[in-house]
Amino acid sequence: MSNGETFPYVPTPDERTLALLAHLLQIISGWLGPLIILLIKRESKFVSFHALQALLLQVAHLVLMVVLGFCAFFMFFLFAMTPSSHVPSPFPILIVPMFFLAWLGPWITIVVLGILYGMRASQGEWAEYPVLGTLAKKFLHIGKTPG
């Protein structure tokens, strides 16, 4: 289901709308919006596929934020335990903006992916996120179809 591949049926307007909502709601509600849509419309492979992709993206984001939080916690104690010197180090000054960018970058990625893939879902495309789309296909047992 890469670019250009579709299943034999065309999704209904309701399915396209719910798939769009799954992508867009993740921007506002995180994992909760895609999960609700996935649970409500499990019988639709199209909606389930798009909602599961959004849900997997949110899980990956959560894991990344936990790792980033542990790194920030470790860096805080590393600086707290280091003996102070008379010359201030520029290292802590550089670390704070780096952690801020590491926090902001994935969120911007979610916003961009949510909008772009939501637009594609609203047009009835089986567009898949890199890596996560393949994982969603495996979870839903969706394979290539001849056609």
Short description:
The N terminus is likely disordered.
Structure description:
Mean pLDDT is 85; it is low at 1-6. This protein has 5 helices and no strands. The protein is elongated. The protein has helices at 13-29, 32-40, 45-81, 91-122, 132-140. Helix 1 (13-29) packs antiparallel against helix 4 (91-122). The longest helix has 37 residues, at 45-81. 71% of the residues lie in helices and 0% in strands. The protein has 147 residues and is mainly alpha-helical. It has one domain (13-80, 92-140).
Helix content: over 70%
Radius of gyration: 20 Å
| Count of discrete domains | 1
Give a count of the beta strands, DSSP E runs of length 2 or more.
0
Structural class: mainly alpha
Low-pLDDT parts are 1-6
Our count of helices gives 5
Order of helices and strands: HHHHH
Distance between the termini: 12 Å
Q: What does the largest sheet look like?
A: none
Quaternary structure of the protein: single chain
**β-sheet strand percentage:** under 5%
Quote the average pLDDT. 85
The geometry reads as elongated
SSE layout and pairing:
Elements: H1 13-29, H2 32-40, H3 45-81, H4 91-122, H5 132-140
